[in-house]
Amino acid sequence: MEDRHKECLLKNRVFMCSEISLSTGLFANLTESGVITDEHLQKLQNIIRNDTTKAAVLYFLTELLPKRGSKAFNLFLEALCESQQEHIADHLKQCLSDVCPEDAGTFKSLRSELQSYYKRRLASIRPMPWLQDIYLNLTDVFVERQLKLKTNHKGDERIVTMKNLFTPQETEEIPRRLLIEGNPGIGKSTICQTLAHEWGKQSCGRHCGTLCVHSFDLVLSFHAGDFIDVESVAHAVQKHLLPSDYSITPSELQGVIKAKNVLIIVDAFDEANAGNRTLDRLIEGDILRHKTLLITSRFNFLENKQRHFESRFTVEGYDEEERLEHVKRYAEHKNIASAPFESMLKDKSILDLCSNPLNLTLLCLLREEDTQLRITRTALYTSIHRIIKQKAAKRLKLIEAEVEESLLRPLYQFAFEAHQKNETVVREKDSKKVQNFQRICEVGYLTNEVIISRLQKEVRFQFTHKTFVEFLTAKHIAEMDREERMNWMQHLRYADYSIWIGGLAIEDFKVEQNEPILGFLFGLLEEESAELTQMASLVINETRFSYEHHPLSLVSPCGASHQLLRLIAELNVVPPELAEVICKRRPPLINIHRHCSVSCRRGMLKLCNLRFQPPIRMNVYLIDSHDEEEMMSFVQKLIESKSIDCSKKIWIKPRNDTELWNDVRGLRIGQADSFQQVSIYCFNIEGIPCEEFSFGNHLSELELFRFKPWHSFLLEAALHKPLTSLQFIRCYKLDDRCISLIHQLLRNQRNLQRVQLTSWQHFGCFLADFAQMENLQSLEITLNDSTDEELRSLEAILKRNKLSELTIHSWYFSYSRSLYSVLNDSFNSMSSLRELRLRYVNIIHLPNLRHLDLINFSLLSPSELNDDGIAVLSDALRSWRNLQQLSIDFDPFSSVAEQLSIDFDFRFSVAECSLRKLFEAIAGCHRLQILRFDSLEMADSVVPSVCRMIESLKQLRKFTSVGNKSLTEEGFKQLEPIIKRNGLNIHME
Ligand SMILES: Nc1ncnc2c1ncn2[C@@H]1O[C@H](COP(=O)(O)OP(=O)(O)OP(=O)(O)O)[C@@H](O)[C@H]1O
């Protein structure tokens, strides 16, 4: 036995004499492993019989164990664990790592083993690992990356350099769980590689911050797949990071990991997330909670685990400077002139390709061979593929057609099968299905015999990059016959779902997850016009491309309805047959918003080149976009296009008065050939723009968000414009001058069809003006305490029966009896009303709701909805046969109040039987397409009714339920198959 073990036993004699139980289990384990013999056992039992158990323990610790050989101590620890005395083993291990200087020896040797491993293995990047002669020195070519740190749930971000990755960010705490997300090929693995390699170099020089990677005692750098089928991090280290002849046991490793300051890096969660229990536990902090864990993943794979991460970063494409640095470093490393690469960066058509480090590296490699630039991702990968094929043909002494037929086709099939399983490997058993697998490997897409286990000699074959798996998969699908391909496409999902239920790991799906392959498929079949058109038609149907999607908001995603745009971005030219289908099935309106991707915008410009009559109307949300300059020039191209009708609305958020004026001029707001509707986020505008500030003479809609009295120059500029819509949203308290200007505007504008005036303020003073407006169709207003005269005006407006939309806000349930009675009486004569939204309302006073014929109804938060209210609502729903959208905000305060034991007078609880009746009534609205609940307490017992409701709503395509705290895993299981039906977009929290 080693001295440090003896010392440890010595120091813990008292502890062990009182803690150890000399149980049959312990004796059985000790005899089985040979730590004690049968004679020893008899001797111990005699001592117990004649003296005490403590005396026996002491004899065992002093006379027996130390003399039983070098492995005795560890076997003793194992025997303790096996006989339910793990706490004693842990105590001894802890003590060992604290007091024994020799344990520092174990740590030192482990540290230097790992450091030299990283220094050697991670020194070079092989962008095409099959071409061993193409490798780049990591230190030479690495471009320092900047990461964006999400600073709050609203999506605000801050730039963090790699040097400050581990520095405490929003809180004082050192982050323990860090996540880096990014697109394929964006450089996530290279970041991991650099961190581990840097640590391997031992010294930080003067480069790093105080909490740099060198501040960790150990860095354990893994691929996510390394955790599959291993029970602990220690086992993973032994299996994947250490050579098989390195002598250390998992428990010793465990001891070092526990005692030291360790960084665990796990790359590519997206490639090995299914059934990866150890990794899940690590993320959740169920094991090694106090160690630092850095995970990388492509987007959308960790949605349900986001809450475990204190620091969430994204790594985005290169900016201009980084692109330049990349090509310069590349040229310098290759010792060639950088001018050809730099000129390549000037070509705008490949700018987005150049922003991706992988693509830029491939472009550089191609540029060395060929001067023609590739414009789409498919074109780029096709070129690379061709090079590989040519090289393989030469090397294997085959003609290219033979390589294609006998080697590449099976490879496409392997890629397809791997992709179906969300893997990037071919397992050994699958490789045996084809005779010439070894030759297939020689082509170069699969790295040869990656031995993933040094202990068990398990073999698998790794595809070089996930994007290549996707490209090769697309090649396989492109070669399928039409029926098979369409069948594959039909089985994809085209609606998003996101489900966050506390403690449940449910994967999310965003339609973008299909796109890498569909994009390649579109690109590959560009010449096959009929095939392409058929595929595009399916995407048009499934993603509801031809529908009008609205409203547009801050959080609108570049979602399913834009998929076709993103896919046609992969085409060099839209073939006439496809162009015809797109023209025929074009949507009446397209919303472009801040999250629209570069490829979406490229697709949009492709659409502009098709000749439409009439043109497509366009809304553009130009607020907070990532690259404002680029976005501005994109919008200007849209304005110039004959196929786009930019007379629709644009949202702008100028940072000051100069920017306001630049936007209004640059985007020609209010002019005949440009946007005639504008929404201005006024909050930041402090000064007053120059005197000639004005909108074009065709301005038809002015929406002012967070308007303050000193923005009155905006009202003056709109005074004589032909407005049909005027909106003030969440405006500040108006002064007399603004009130008078609004009166003037309302009196000038007899054509106004839509007016919105909302804040916490009462706007009844304008009702008399509205009553004079013959054309008013949509009214949204905040009313608190209305006078009799105001109510008479309101009644006149409602009973004129011209309104198709009505929204009433009020402050703290200030609906008076007389307001209820005006509304309720008027409902009988409002046959034109189609959309109704009410806030702070108690609908038990509105039984005449059932006389309306609504398409859209919302009870906005907070509303008084108790059992009686639900009865009135259910009654109304039964008569609204044309209802398409329903949104009900249950009382969000009641559960908060309950938690805080506060007795608010607006707490309402709802009986389950009422809820069931409500669900039954909704189930009868067969035209319902969008259903939203907020703070609905959907307990498991009502789930069967919810299931029946969703099943009966065949046209339902969007279901949202947020703020539900009652559903358990059991209840969710019943709901899951129903809500995950294809075509249904779900959002549950
Ligand atoms: N910071 C960088 N400096 C220089 N080259 C880089 C950098 N990051 C990435 N590259 C190049 O891009 C290639 C792909 O990068 P990497 O494998 O890190 O991407 P990834 O985000 O992990 O992709 P995937 O999600 O497909 O696995 C690298 O092989 C390298 O050639």
UniProtKB/TrEMBL annotation:
Q: Name one Pfam family in it.
A: CARD
Name the SUPFAM superfamilies for this protein: DEATH domain (SSF47986), P-loop containing nucleoside triphosphate hydrolases (SSF52540), RNI-like (SSF52047)
Q: Where is the NACHT domain?
A: 176-298
Q: Respond yes or no to whether keyword Metal-binding is given for this record.
A: no
Q: Which SMART domains match?
A: CARD
Keyword set for this entry? ATP-binding, Cytoplasm, Immunity, Innate immunity, Nucleotide-binding
The organism that produces this protein has a lineage beginning with: Eukaryota, Metazoa, Spiralia, Lophotrochozoa, Annelida
Question: Per the UniProt entry, what species is this protein from, by scientific name?
Answer: Capitella teleta
User: What is the protein name given in its UniProt record?
Assistant: CARD domain-containing protein
- Coiled-coil residue spans: none
Source organism, top-level taxon: Eukaryota
Where in or outside the cell is it found?
Answer: Cytoplasm
